[in-house]
Amino acid sequence: MFTTRRWWEHKALQIGLVALVVGSAWTLRQTQGALVMEIYQGITRPLKTLQPGISPEDRIRDAQILELQTRVVDLESQNQKLKSLLDYVEKEPLSKRPIVARVVGRSADHWWQQVTLNSGTKAGIQEGFVVKAEGGLVGLVESVTPNTSRVLLVSDLKSQVGVTISRTTAKGVLRGDSSAEGVLEFYEKVPNVKVGDLVSTSTYSQKFPAGLPVGRIKSLDLKKLPASVAKVELFPPIRYLDWVTIYPSPEKIEQEKPKVENQKP
Asked: What CATH architecture is 71-153?
C-alpha cells in the first residue's frame, strides 16, 4: 500500500500532464480550433482597439487613387510612344509621310498571325499597304473597312517576304514561325552568311520596298535540304505591338507616279 502511494506521488504530475494534453487535443478536434480562436481574439481585441483602424471609406479612396495613378502612368507611356512616332513621321518628306494607326484588336488564338488597326479607307489605307513599327517591317494590310484595317504579320505562317543579307547580299525568303522569330530559306545551297548578319527586304520583293530592316540571323543550318535555312530574330516588337506606321506598297507607288507626272504640267 505504501509502495503504491509513493508511486502515485511520483507519477501523478506526469499522468496529469498527459491527461491535459490528450484532453486538449480531443477538444481542439471536436471544436475544430474554435476555442483557440476565441481565446486569441479575446487577447488581441484590446490591442486592435489601441491601433488606428482603416475605415471602408479610406479603403475606397485608396483604391480610387491607385486607379488614377495607373491611368496617368499608362497615358504618359502612350503619349511618349506617340510623340516619338510623330517625330519620326515628321522627318519623312510630305509625299512619303505614312499614316499613323494604333492596334485596337488582337485575338489570343491568332496572336502571331494578325492585328486590327483603328484606321481604314477613310484615312487612305488600301489593301497591300506596308505596315512598319519601331524596328522595321511588321506586315501587310490584308483587308480594309472604312474605319479599320487587318494586318497580316510577318510572323504568320502564311507570310512570305523576299529578304537579303545586308553584308553579303545573299538572298532568300523569310517565312513566319508563329513566334518572335522567322525561318529564312536561302536561294543558294551554301550562302555566304553567318550568325549576327542583318536581314532586310530584298530588291526582288514586289510587295515590300527594298531595304526595310527585318531582323538578325540567330542560328544557321547549312546542311538542311533542299536549301540552307536560318532562324531570324525579328526586330519589330511583334509580341506587343501598339502604334504602327502604314505606307503604300511599291506597286501602289508605281501606279501613282504617272498620275503625278500628268498633273505637273
From this structure: Beta Barrel (2.40)
